[in-house]
Specification:
8-stranded parallel barrel; 2 domains; alpha/beta; 5-stranded antiparallel β-sheet; single chain; binds alpha-D-glucopyranose; globular
Length: about 625
């Protein structure tokens, strides 16, 4: 026991100075800080021996995060297998996909009909009853750990549901509970705030405040009216929310996803996003984990422009988030598919190249949310593309309105005046599989499948942890049934939040089916990736010019090997000009190149074709 305590004490002593100065700098409240420290001690004492062991071994071998063997998948328990026990039964399928990092979408208690897909939590310590119990969650997590799968859970920290106990007390007039939120008697202050506040959901939930008729107050609601923003300027909020975070960590969760983190601090006269205090709060939470549960990683959900995203890594000495979504790469990939022009993506890769190797991104093509067109319009402006018409082009393309587009998506938060509509749809439907199957057009289907696989290969090549969106591995199409569901019809994100199609998945090994083309194609790529350390997240990545704007060239180097990834983003045969070398094709080991006389050689790719070429070389390839 004494030894166990000492780990806590050592880690506390290592970090106490910084923790104290950050905390008191924010709150000037010694009493609240004493409470915070006591809470950390409690959380550590409550941590199971097996998890403490995990903390120690992960700390000793932190390298696993950078491994090319990491592969994620995100899924909704209810859509995938009914409930948590169902997910546990289906773990062999998840293993078969090669996944060792599982993001279980929000599963804590959340009122039906006003849950925003689980992102309105009414109890941070209770699992939604239709999904199971906390006990089921712990069992599922242990089962995952036994299979070497890490588990990620959402921590919805910006707001609570209006049915959370704090919100209920606040409605009843309890001033202590009201002080946890932003409560006002009249519109004076909200009006001041609103001058600089953009709207998150301009169509589905306009405005940033909600008038509560029953108590005659106004409450801040940046997202939906039933999601009340928490006031982190109140130290009780930080204390209790950190306690909730550690409670989840103590259930065995390996990765905590900090939902909507840029929004958590509000200052009048600003847009209330990415304020310096947000970074202080995140660093405090990181230190809390470092002291109590050092194996737990923080994943920041920062859906912002690149210059706002990167600061959430903190500095190498004072890290904040361990991992961040590569949201810019995600939307730029879709832009690249629609424009058949790789210049922006190449530019982005060059920017990532300059970041410290320790920064870990999570790469993805699709997730549960919409695709927002947060592209680098400064850069695109250089090619004559301006923001509003370009967004319109992308939206027209991906909703199939553009002549010849095979894509089938739906718009999200479309307001003509704002000209900032976003987009929803599954990878398969956006790549044209839905349209080709509907039209029974085999050639179009082949092309769409090639595009889908090429995008996945591209995602697997990027530096960082690739994460599949459940259903994409078998080519699940848009689910239009939400149009008929009164609780879901107003939110088009539901188009890609359908039930997992187990019947379709049964075809995953049946040759000639869409499901097998994708599943087996992807499995091969994942297998290759896991075997080759040039895909490690700390292996440098750089853009390679192949003298064709329709082909993206990505270089990765590790040890004495260099990878060249080639991706044809157009539906036509395209030619790359690459360095002549004794390349080997990872996807077709029988094809070997011979280093010739010339320094450059031509290399042709079929429509939406891709290649992973590898060579032994001690020299670093020039971009
Ligand atoms: C995050 C979630 C999104 C949710 C929002 C509000 O952005 O990804 O689904 O609507 O937070 O909690």
């Amino acid at each position: 026991m004494a030894k166990r305590e000492s780990f806590f004490q050592i880690r506390l002593q290592e970090n106490i100075e910084e923790l104290k100065s950050l905390y008191l700098g924010l709150y000037h409240d010694e009493h609240a800080f004493a409470f915070f420290l006591a809470m950390l001690g409690e959380a550590y004492r409550a941590r199971k021996a097996s998890l403490r062991q995990r903390d120690l071994s992960r700390k000793e071998h932190p390298d696993y995060r950078m491994s090319q063997r990491m592969l994620g998948m995100m899924l909704y328990a209810e859509n995938f297998a009914g409930d948590l026990a169902g997910v546990q039964k289906k773990l062999p399928y998840i293993k078969e996909c090669g996944v060792n990092y599982l993001h279980l979408m929000p599963l804590l208690d959340s009122p039906e009909g006003k849950s925003d897909g689980g992102y309105a939590v009414s109890d941070f310590r209770r699992v939604r009853p239709d999904l199971g119990t906390m006990d089921d969650l712990e069992k599922l997590i242990s089962a995952c750990h036994r299979r070497d799968i890490m588990v990620c859970l959402d921590f919805v920290m910006n707001h609570t549901s209006d049915e959370h106990a704090w919100a209920k007390d606040a409605r009843q007039g309890d001033p202590v509970a009201q002080a946890r939120y932003f409560f006002y008697d009249n519109w004076d202050i909200p009006d001041q705030f609103q001058k600089d506040l953009p709207e998150v959901f301009p169509v589905t939930a306009p405005g940033n405040y909600t008038y509560l008729e029953d108590c005659g107050k106004i409450v801040m609601t940046s997202f939906f009216p039933f999601q009340w923003d928490l006031n982190y300027a109140n130290p009780m909020v930080l204390n209790d929310m950190t306690d909730n975070l550690l409670y989840l960590a103590n259930r065995g969760v390996d990765v905590i996803r900090l939902d909507a983190v840029p929004y958590i601090w509000k200052t009048c006269g600003t847009n209330c996003r990415n304020l310096p205090e947000v970074h202080t709060v995140v660093r405090i939470m990181k230190l809390a984990c470092e002291i109590v549960c050092p194996s737990v990683m923080l994943l920041g959900e920062v859906v912002m422009e690149p210059k706002e995203v990167v600061p959430y890594f903190g500095s190498p000495e004072r890290p904040e988030c361990d991992m961040l979504y590569n949201v810019t790469a995600m939307c730029t990939i879709w832009h690249t598919l629609a424009t058949r022009d790789v210049r922006l993506l190449r530019h982005q890769i060059e920017q990532i190249e300059n970041l410290p190797a320790a920064y870990l991104f999570q790469n993805y093509l699709r997730c549960h949310d919409d695709i927002g067109w947060g592209l680098d319009y400064g850069f695109l402006g250089g090619f004559g593309m301006s923001e509003a018409p370009h967004k319109k082009y992308l939206n027209d393309w991906f909703t199939g309105k553009w002549f010849g587009s095979p894509s089938r998506g739906e718009l999200y938060n479309d307001i003509e005046m704002l000209q900032d509509a976003r987009l929803c749809g599954t990878t398969a439907s956006l790549c044209g599989i839905e349209a080709a199957e509907f039209e029974q057009n085999e050639e179009a289907l082949r092309t769409a499948l090639a595009a889908d696989l090429m995008l996945h290969a591209l995602m697997l090549t990027l530096k960082g942890v690739p994460v599949l969106y459940s259903g994409d591995e078998i080519g699940m199409l848009n689910n239009y049934s939400y149009h008929e569901d009164p609780k879901r019809f107003s939110d088009s994100r539901n188009i890609h939040r359908g039930q997992f199609d187990w019947v379709l998945s049964e075809q995953r090994h049946t040759p000639g089916t869409t499901a097998s083309a994708l599943f087996e194609g992807l499995s091969d790529l994942i297998c290759i990736r896991k075997k080759n350390d040039v895909f490690r997240s700390d292996a440098p990545m750089y853009a390679v010019d192949v003298e064709n704007e329709r082909i993206l060239g990505i270089g990765r180097t590790y040890g004495d090997r260099t990878l060249l990834g080639l991706f044809n983003v157009s539906p036509e045969h395209s030619r790359a000009v690459i360095e002549t070398a004794a390349w080997e094709e990872l996807t077709d080991p029988d094809r070997v190149f011979v280093a010739g006389e010339q320094t450059r050689m031509e290399y042709w790719l079929e429509p939406y074709g891709f290649r992973w070429l590898i060579r032994k070389n001690v020299q670093h390839e020039e971009a």
